[in-house]
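Weekly structure sync, notes
Attendees: PL (lead), two postdocs, one rotation student
Agenda item 3: pending single-chain targets
PL asked that the sequence for the first pending target be pasted directly into the notes so everyone works from the same version. It is reproduced below exactly as submitted, 444 residues in total.
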Amino acid sequence: MSRCHRVSIAVATAFALACFALPALGQAPASPPADAPAAALPAALPTTALPAGQDPKIDPANLRSALRPMRRAEIEQQLEAWLGVLQAKARELADTEIGRRAAETATNNAEVERLSQQLVRLRAERDAIVERVRAVIEAAKDKGVDPAEATQYVDSISGGVQLEVTGLQSAWSEARAWMFSVDGGLRLLLSIGQFLGVLIAFRILAAILAGLLDRAVRRLKKTSDLLRDFVVNATRKLVSFVGIVIALSYIGVNIAPLVAAIGAAGFIVGFALQGTLQNFAAGIMVLIYRPYDIGDYVTAAGVSGTVASMNLVSTSIKTPDNQLIVVPNGSIWGGVITNVTANPTRRLDLKFGVSYGDDLDKVKAVLTEIFTSHPKVLKDPAPVIEVHELADSSVNFVARPWVKTSDYWALHWEFHKAVKQRFDREGISIPFPQRDVHMYPQPV
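Predicted structure, written out during the meeting:
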């Protein structure tokens, strides 16, 4: 199988898994269709408490839609009706628990086994009714009804896995019944499998998207390495975070309060870390305007060196003597930035002093020959060699050849050596500061 086919299969797999996970973004996994039988509800619920025509096995999403146009009085009637259904189921559950205790006392193991399985089923049915009652409570709140008593009642009788047992036999019977129940252990196992599947799918999706973005950004000639690394890493982390949030919804975590908590925590942390946020904003500006890139030699915030790495908070600069200095981006963006290696060519500024007694035309000819004959000196623009100043002890010539940026320091040192050796051969003296001291004796 070719590499292209393998990539295509991976993309298709990740896309399918992601689509499977998307319904959990705003809520728990999608509810079954309205015409499908509601899971975990009994074949016959006590319907006498419900209004005429109300189906006790109605899908929660359809129930919310049906409640939306109702007025306050109708909502109150619905709430009382559903509380009656829940109360009836709670009584049935309590009677079954009492019966199992009696069977335990009589050491009737077969009856304990049967009632333990029935308890698991009844608790699943109760939880299904609780879900619908909570939907009615939310609708009541929206219509101005105070559902405090109803909420307290629901909280008092609802719960997750309950093992209220008095003996080892009943404990094992109820635990085994729960583990093999569709609404118990099997449902938990499915939720864990979906949780892991969503995490793996989004991990694959994050890697694929990061790779595609990396290749796409590399094709843009004006895009810096800093921006490419930021886009790739940010995409990978963002997709992974979305995958974690979606995966949590499959194990029963309500993601709406989680997202709200993350937003509130972000506000508090942002307020506490104002300086860090300033550096973050400066990092964004550096990525956008690209005053330097990784590998450039810069002078910024009083530090000179090669840019080793950068993130949105700081920039790491390696000095010529191999020190690694981490500079906050706020300090860099708020000051002057000198990018020494931004352009492919640079100009060497060299100064040479000769004696006042030397032939200036000869000196200029010698310097011109040295610089124009060197293979690494650029022909265009041509080197500039002129008398620069008449100093106290010497006549100073300036030489300004253009070279490649990568050859700058090598040629800087090479030309100083070459000029000194050539001046010695040509008999041109390089003076040093001299001072005449005249002493006049004074009569005592």
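Discussion points:
- The beta strands are 297-300, 303-310, 314-318, 324-328, 337-339, 345-347, 350-354, 384-390, 395-400, 402-404.
- The chain has a mean pLDDT of 80.
Action: rotation student to compare against the earlier draft before next sync.
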